[in-house]
Amino acid sequence: MCRFCPFAQRTWIDLNEKGVPYTLYEVAIKNPKTGLWHQLNEKPEWFLKLNPLGKVPTLAYKEADATHSVYESNICNEFLEDYQPSPSLFAIHPVCKARERTNKLVPLFYRVLVRQDKEQKEVAREIQDQFYWLEEQVDSQGPYFMGRDFSMVDITLLPWFIRMFILEHYRGFGLPADCKKLAAWH
């Protein structure tokens, strides 16, 4: 796990919401001397045995004599839902479950921060469109995205909304002022 990684934070939130006992092991994803991303051969061997991709989050658990591992935040969170179904953080109704999984904010957020060219303005417009789409999806009764219950959509989006200041500072835009429901949720 890496505490500042938004993907790892998703699974960390899920573990805590479900009350699953765990031991947190920090794995540096950047070399502190250079500030560059660690190459696979620079990551701990024990970690690469659990996750050959070397990414966080990674869940590991023992069952009988075997150690199993699960990685990638969405897969980890779906695993946790099966491993400990209560409290359920996924919607039961298929339409609501689809709504939980349908958003483009995360890849757009990355693209607008990485782009240094004219395409950046196009991606910024796409993010604004995504904010308006999300605004239509938020349950106005709140306090959570899907209404009165904390759910996987809150877990998925929250680490990115916490980082909204990055868009505001480095790209000069953020959540549109007329996205009142999103602002109240955030």
Task: Please supply descriptive tags for the structure shown above.
single chain; 186 residues; mainly alpha; two-stranded antiparallel sheet; 2 strands; flat
**Overall 3D geometry?**
flat
What is the beta-strand fraction? 5-15%
Largest sheet: 2 strands, antiparallel
Question: How much helicity do the residues have?
Answer: 40-55%
- Mean of residue pLDDT? 86
Q: List unreliable stretches of 5+ residues.
A: none
N-to-C SSE string, H for helix and E for strand: HHEEHHHHHHH
Total of DSSP H or I helical runs spanning 4+ residues: 9
> Number of DSSP strands?
2
Give, in spatial order, the strands making up the sheet with the most strands: 1-2
> How big is the Rg?
18 Å
| SS-derived structural category | mainly alpha
Distance between the termini: 24 Å
Report what the structure shows.
The chain has helices at 6-18, 45-50, 73-83, 94-101, 105-114, 119-137, 152-161, 164-171, 180-185, and strands at 58-63, 66-71. With 186 residues, the protein is mainly alpha-helical. Strands 1-2 form a two-stranded antiparallel sheet. Helix 1 packs parallel to helix 3 (73-83) and helix 1 (6-18) packs antiparallel against helix 7. The longest helix is centred in the last third of the chain and has 19 residues, at 119-137.
